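User: what does the whole thing look like in 3D?
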Amino acid sequence: MARVVIRNLNKMYNEVHAVKGVNLEIRDREFVVLVGPSGCGKTTTLRMVAGLESITSGDILIGDTIVNELPPMDRDIAMVFQNYALYPHMSVYDNMAFGLKMRKFARDEIDRRVREAADILGIEDYLARKPRQLSGGQRQRVALGRAIVRHPQVFLFDEPLSNLDAMLRVQMRVEIKKIHDRLGTTAIYVTHDQVEAMTLGDRVVVMKDGLVQQVGDPLDLYNAPVNRFVAGFIGSPAMNFAIVGVAEENGAICAVGDGMRLKLPPRTAERLRPHVGDEVTLGIRPEDLHLVSGDGADGLSFAAVVEVVERLGSQILLDVKVGSGAMVAAVEPTVQAKARDHLRLGLNAERLHFFDGRSEIAI
Amino acid sequence: MAVSDVVIQRPFVRAPRRGPATRLLEDERWLAAALLLPTLILLGLFIAYPFAEGIWLSVTDTRVGVPGSFVGLANFDALLHDSIFRTAVWNTFVYTAVATVFKLGLGLWLALLLNRNFRGKAFTRAFILLPFIIPTVLSTFAWKWMFDPTFSVINWSLFQLGLIHARINWLGDPNLALISVIIVNVWRGVPFFAISLLAGLQTINPELEEAAAIDGARPWQRFWHVTWPLLLPVTMVVVLFSIIQTFSDFQLVYVLTGGGPANATQLFATYAYQIGVGTGLLSQGAAISLAMFPFLLIVVVVQLLYIRRVEVH
Amino acid sequence: MIEGARWRRWVYFYIPLGAFILWLLFPFYWMLVTSVRPDRELYRPWMAPNYTPFWTAHPTLEHITDLLTETLFIRWMANTLFIASVATLISLFCGILAGYALSRLKFPFGGALGTGIFITYLVPQTLLFIPLASIIRNFQLGDTPWALILTYPTFLIPFCTWLLMGYFKAIPRELEECARIDGATRWKAMIYIIMPIAVPGILSAGIFAFTLSWNEYIYALVFLSSAEEKTVSVGVASDLVRGDVFYWGQLMAGALLGSIPVAFIYSFFVEYYVAGLTGSVKG
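Assistant: Here's the predicted 3D structure for the full assembly of 959 residues, as structure tokens:
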């Protein structure tokens, strides 16, 4: 069983508490992505699993063994680095064979495995070349190949696609997903790009300031974020936020903010009843805003002025000014709008998010 | 596909048993200790120990074959009253100062010349380093032969050019000897300065000088205000390094004049050799050598402080 | 290039450069000419007529043959080659290990040790030679090549360490980390990954160390006494001067031949030597 268990993991650098009490259980064959902004502790956590950083407190188990004291070479893991980390003085073949040589595998077994991995990755033609003769994408494949030949228990990825250009990144993303499906090895993947997280992960772990914010399946994170940070981090373009006051009027609950006055639908209203009189944060995703005509009698719309129109082809992004704040709406490409237009945007009643004013936790 | 089958069924491989030595060397601190050990032993035995022994020698009255007893600072006191020692001190400082100034000036000039692109540049650069590469003693003998009072080719050339009428006794004239020795030292050191400063020049972005030129600065101004400040770090390192070598120089003077004539070229090192090895007065010789230390220490400290300051920036 | 008229190029560039080259290389030419000049031409006083110092019409190999057959010159060359090679190997070994430790490992007192090693480079041989002479004698190493082989590293190691630290620092740490994950111990990662990549630095340090060893004089002068053990510099300086008479022909032949091995090796590794020299200065 190649599962990975992280229990109460902490890391202190002098005075800085980089990783705070992380608890995670990664199941066998699962592809888990750690995502978050720079400095959130995701890379440090990964490096502790690899054995490249010492553990201040807590345990890490690979399989059923506590590996805290084991050096990297004894943990039966493989890692793919952001800068590929290919040995420049060795050929592609030798790069891939290095780990097996260190473990004293037989020559023909090494050859078999290297060619097998080269075949999976489509790099059989490059085996004799040196890294400097390869392009970025090819180098990353070799780095993957080097990890695959070892048949490790766990793959670790440290932002492997960050150095590639946009098109190559998309291509490699698909490749990695295919390889994982084919090989089935447990994988822990670190990235700051939420698109990679959503597309690659069986489960996604969002981290901030050393703490785990939310763990879940990508769609859960998207549809039901537990706090304002996760809501704003996942999804592109990002969720719109507005500070609103909760008021009661004639039995109905209203959200009153700068430039908007919304009458909340019954189910949502019940959630917010305990918060009457408080300020909360309203969250609405750009794709959950649509153009409405009329004067907004239904209560779930607000007036806005278009500032910038971004035509993407598959959709149109309207950067609008609402009151003194700004929002983004994603609408169909057939919409006719131009700068300085006045229009009305309606909100999808099923997709309103609210976050507590102080704790920022979802309501 | 065989690959997937292999991966699923394999249980976690027990970590191989590692011997105690392997485990120890995985620890950064023990590995560092093991790696540094040979160096520390060699440097300890052949620098730290002799240094301490030298201090001990200088405060006793040991002679060759005669163990000495403690005499405190008597040796140093005697040196202060020794006119030859005072001459040696003066000579060493003059030698170091003058040679360094010329090496820096000429080296810089040569570096600026080499900084242009011309045919045969790599070739020239390689040949120019020869004075620095060739063993000092051997090239110094060539100079000794060139300075020979009877057979000097330099004298011959100057005479042919009508610049002199009587021979110049380069090494035998007490007024000229130090100058001659300085000439040879400068000859040897200019390539080192030139190549080092050239490397420094080549790290300076040419756009800076071009911008200054467009702004109207003349060549001298461009050099002084743009190039020189950027070259200063490399210059400092080279100069300080050279000062230490020149101050403690021995080979050159020993071969050319042996310290004469009449102590005109006597330096710390040559005097220490003469007294310690020549006459066998080990303690006094050691004292003379150690007398170099305070100045060298100041230079080293200056260099360390400078490097630290540059690193901070 | 220098802008402007052609004459400016000559005055400001070609002439000064030519003068420098002439001044720096003339002594070697003089060495060569003197080595092949017969005695009767050598000892013509400088004011004698028909004196053609810059070339000779009757080149002779007698100085060189006398040097090789009548003196211990070949023995001296062999000694120096042996001493310089072994001292260089020892220094490279220590320098590589120490340079790696100081640049890539974290341990207490690392900075202080690095500074300490740097400082020993600045303790000149002329300060230590007197006490070191008696220490050498006490260790029974006097008058053997080992006296030099063991003491030369004192000024070679700090330099090699310093130079190699620069090269090691430039190697990304991911390479080592990846090697350790692949299954290498720290030691193996150093041998299989770091060292091969640092080969240019190792070559530079080696060349520089070799030339520095060949160049050393005072330790060789003081620690060696019998003629068979001497190095080239010491032998040429002492045994080719009999009484008060300088045998200039043989001396210059000795100087020339003694310089050749160094110049020869240097010519193959010029780039590495220059890299070593500038690397140590840019530190």
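In plain terms: The mean pLDDT of chain B is 84. The first helix of chain B runs from residue 2 to 9.
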